[in-house]
Amino acid sequence: MDTGLLIAGVEGPAASGQTFEVLSPASELVIGNAARADASDVDRAVAAARTGFEAWSSLSPGEREAALLKAASLMEQHGEERYLEALIDESGSTINKARHEIRYTVDLLRTAAGEVRRLYGDTFPNDRTDRLSMVFREPLGVVAIVSPYNAPLALLAKMTAFPLAAGNSVVIKPSEETPQIAVAFAKLLIEAGLPANAVNVVTGFGADCGAPLVSHPDIDGIALTGSTATGKAIGAQAMQKMRRVQLELGGKSALLVLKDFDPEQAAQIAVQGMFNHAGQICMANSRIVVEAPVFDAFCAAFKQACETLPLGDLRDPSTAYGPLINRRALNKVIEHQRDALAAGARLLTGGDIESGLRYQPTVILEPPRDSSIWRDESFGPITSVVCAADLDEAIALANDSEFGLSAAVLTRDIVAGFKAARAIRSGAVHIGMHSFQSNAMAPVGGLGLSGIGRSGGHYSTEEFTELKWISVELG
Ligand code: NAD
Fold first, then answer.
1. What's the pTM?
2. How far apart are CA 44 and CA 146, in angstroms?
3. Closest ligand 1 atom to Cα of 405
4. How far apart are the CA of 152 and the centre of ligand 1, in A?
């Protein structure tokens, strides 16, 4: 399928006429072409979004709420027929992951619709009794949305729905790997009743489309979900013009397995937390820290669980995960494994290409703490397991990272669980489950290299609105 830019509701080519190929990760074959936008297309999209902002923000809350609820209903009714195949073909999702994205998108759109009526202001006492002071919450204006490839529908919905609920218009720059899904999602929003110029999409690459968008003089805010490297570039750009910016970046999320927890069950939870979507999940448990008394039993159970993961057809509901998005991503996993093994780590299981871009579930034991697999995001089906003498060492190992997105502690000991949860520096800590958790109301985001700001529910509203103090002299 070919995809154009979507500007003011009209799908069309880039001004230059250039396109780029979209590949299926499963077959590595071309499945379509997408318009390749540059700065002149970005200008058109931002100009449309500026008028779209006037149209959308002047609607009543009830009208904005109705449009977002209609979008949720359309997604609920037609999501499978419109997005399922695209999620499998374009992003290499399994059918289960694709279905989860569609269901979660419905939830996100409904939650965002609820936020429309919660754009609360404030009042506060004034010592000058003849003066009134109040605080109004106002949308930023035009928000640039730069999204990644790994959950191309649900993450885009999350990044888009909440700024829209607050009254902003958007220009979306989706990942160059997944342009079709983004354009199809924007069309659904317009079909649901959003003004056509309030939702615009420019497809293309980071350098020639993303960069001119985030540095455009007429945007008012930026949301990026992507790698830390891109976050640093966009963050620096945003500070040049003091733009509001929300950055959801990479992770190196620790899973702590404490000595009281059943190692067999821990292994099953670790498999889910780590290998979902081939580890291409920002919150994947790419560092597993196990207390010494259960270390051997956990490793044995984890090895067996990895070796029996079904890696069949993407449309088979039992398939655990599919291919990596591209060769670059595959090479990064291979490189992290090679460096760790060369530095003396051991391979517990996996370590090879399964077929095409699909890599075996791979577990590295005791990598050096300065190795890339311990320090950097691998974003693939590879994790490391290390042994901790006790809870304090487990916490210290969890904190031995510049990332801080999500973490998890497997224990039935509430005191130990809370102690770890409070001590781990991370945007989230989950007790009794793995670290890959989603909830439309939750504040998702990280510390350190994992980013700035939070998304979800009213936390997104905080990010994409400005406060204005208005006072009135009555005397
Ligand atoms: P990426 O950083 O390569 O790309 C993200 C987006 O940024 C793409 O649309 C890309 O074209 C664009 N981009 C790249 N350079 C740019 C520039 N200089 N200016 C403007 N735009 C630019 O990330 P990716 O590989 O698509 O996604 C994977 C990354 O996303 C991982 O690091 C993962 O951890 C992260 N991620 C984080 C979360 C979270 O909630 N924290 C969620 C999902 C993914």
1. 0.97
2. 17
3. 41
4. 11
Task: Give the distance (Å) from ligand 1 centre to CA of residue 179.
Answer: 14
Q: Is the CB of 377 under 6 A from ligand 1?
A: yes
Instruction: List Cα–Cα distances, 102 to 108, 151, 153, in angstroms.
Output: 10, 10, 7
Rounded Cα distance between 254 and 257, Å, is: 10
Q: What is the pLDDT along the chain (475 residues), one digit of tens a residue?
A: 899 999 999 999 999 999 999 999 999 999 999 999 999 999 999 999 999 999 999 999 999 999 999 999 999 999 999 999 999 999 999 999 999 999 999 999 999 999 999 999 999 998 999 999 999 999 999 999 999 999 999 999 999 999 999 999 999 999 999 999 999 999 999 999 999 999 999 999 999 999 999 999 999 999 999 999 999 999 999 999 999 999 999 999 999 999 999 999 999 999 999 999 999 999 999 999 999 999 999 999 999 999 999 999 999 999 999 999 999 999 999 999 999 999 999 999 999 999 999 999 999 999 999 999 999 999 999 999 999 999 999 999 999 999 999 999 999 999 999 999 999 999 999 999 999 999 999 999 999 999 999 999 999 999 999 999 999 999 8
Task: Report which secondary-structure segment, H or E, holds 409.
Answer: strand 407-410
Domain 5-249+450-473 homologous superfamily, CATH: Aldehyde Dehydrogenase; Chain A, domain 1 (3.40.605.10)
Which residue in 282, 299, 306, 387 is the catalytic one?
282
- Whether 91 is in the pocket of ligand 1, judged by its Cβ within 6 Å, is no
The fold of 254-439 is Aldehyde Dehydrogenase; Chain A, domain 2 (3.40.309)
Q: Does the active-site annotation cover 248?
A: yes
All CATH 3.40.605.10 domain ranges of the chain, comma separated, are 5-249+450-473
Identify whether the C-beta of residue 199 lies closer than 8 Å to the C-beta of residue 180: no
Residue 475 alpha carbon to ligand 1 centre in Å: 54
Find the angle CA(340)-CA(380)-CA(425) to the nearest 5 degrees: 80
Active site residue 282: yes
Contact of 297 with 262, CB cutoff 8 Å: no
For residue 129, the CA-to-ligand 1 centroid distance in Å is: 51
Question: Among the atoms of ligand 1, which is closest to the Cα of residue 379?
Answer: 31
Closest Cα to residue 427, out of 254, 232, 245?
A: 254
Residue nearest to atom 32 of ligand 1 (CA): 227
In the chain, list all ranges with CATH 3.40.309.10. 254-439
Tell the residue nearest (CA) to atom 31 of ligand 1. Answer: 227
